[in-house]
Design brief:
This protein has four helices and 15 strands. It is an alpha+beta fold. Helix 2 runs antiparallel to helix 3. The longest helix is centred in the middle third of the chain and has 89 residues.
Length: about 425
Amino acid sequence: MPDQEHQNRDGQAAGTSGTDHIQPREDAGIDRNDEEMQPEKSSRRKFIVIAVLIFLIVGACLFYWHSTFTEDTDDAQIDGNLYQVSSRVTGQVIKVYVDDNQQVQAGQLLAEIDPKDYQVALEQALANLASAKAAAIQANVNVPITSTSVRTTLSTTGSDVQGAMAAVAQAQKQEQASEARVDQAKANALKAKLDVDRYTPLVQKDVISKQQFDAAVAQASGTSAAVIEAQADVIARREAVREAQQRLEQSKFQASESRTNGPQQVRVQEAKANAAQAEVQQAQAKVDQARLNLSYTHITAPATGIVNKKNVQVGSNLSIGQDLLTIIPLTDLWVTANFKETQIQHMHPGQTVKIEVDALGGRKFDGKVTQIGGATGSKLSLFPPENATGNYVKVVQRIPVRIDFTDLQKENGDYALRPGFSVTPYVSVK
C-alpha cells in the first residue's frame, strides 16, 4: 500500500509536471487571438461613437428645428374679471345665502333687502299711472269734439255773414224805397201848396166856396206832414242800413276769428292730448323704476364663481354702491402671457396655443392668441423708465399677450382653474 500511494503521488506529480509543460503553449495561442480581435473591437467602438454622435447631432438639429415651431414663456398667469357685487338700493338686509369661498352660479340669490318700502312705491306708481291714463283718454276724446265744434263754428259764422249781407241789401232797398216815398210826399205837398195858392184869390172873390179852400189848406198841411214822416222814415231806414252793415262786419270778424282760432283750438287740444300721453309715459317710467328698485332688493350673482371678501350680514343697513362681496370668476378666464419682444416676430392673433397649468400637474388646455399688447410692460408701469440720460443698458422687454381658452367649458367642467394660476403657454407660430 505504501508503494501504491507513492506511485500515485509520483503519477500525479508527473501529470502535473506534464500539464505545466503543455500550458505555455495554450497561453501563447490565446495571446495571438486577442491581438487579432483588438482591431475589430476598436473599429466597432469607433462606429458606435460615430453613430451616437450623429444621432445626437441629428436629435439636436431636430429639437432646434422643432423648437422654432412654438414660442413659450413661464411668465404667464390666468386672468379674469373680478366682480364687485354692491347694493343698488338702500335698505336693511333680511337674508344672506352665501359664505366666503362658496361656489355660486350665475343668477344665484346672494342676499335680500327688505322690500316693503319698494312695494309701496310700486303701488303708488301704478296708481299714478292709472290716473294719467284716464286723463289721457279724456284729452284724446276732446280732440275730435273740439274739431267738430270748430267746423260747426266755421260753418255758422259763414252763414251769419251771408245772412248779414242779405240784411244789409234789404235795408238798403228799404232805404231807397223810403227816399222814393219822400220824393212822392214832397211832390204831393208841392201840389197841395200850389192848390192853396190858386184857391186863395178865388176864395177872396167868392169864386169857390170857403169849404173848398179849407179842404185845399188841409190837404196842403197833410202833404207837408207826409213829407216829414217820409223823411223820418228815410232816416230810420239809413240807421237800419248802418246797423245791418255793423252786423255784417261783426259776422265777418267772427268768421275770420273762427278761421284763425279754430285750427289753433284743435292744435291746443291735440297738444293737451300729447301732454297727457307724455304724462302716461312718465308715469310708466316711474312704474318701471319702482319695479327695478323692487328687483334690486334681490341681490344675485352676476357670474359663476367663488365668493370672496364677504362683507354683508343680516341686519346691515346698506347704502347705494356699498360693496358686499367679490366673486372670483371660474368661466370667463384667459391667460396673460408676457413674451419677450424677440418672441413675437411671427406671433399674431388667431394662432393656436397649448396651455400647461402648473397647479394641475401639467394638465393642458387649448387656446388661441386673441390680442397682442400695444406697449411693453415697462411702459405701462406706474413709473416708466427714462433712458434719455445717463448710461443705458439694453434689456429685453416683454409684451403682454392675451390668450383665450377655447375648450375651458368642455375640459374644465370641474371649474379647476383659478385666476392667478401660473401657466406655460406654447404658441404655434408655424
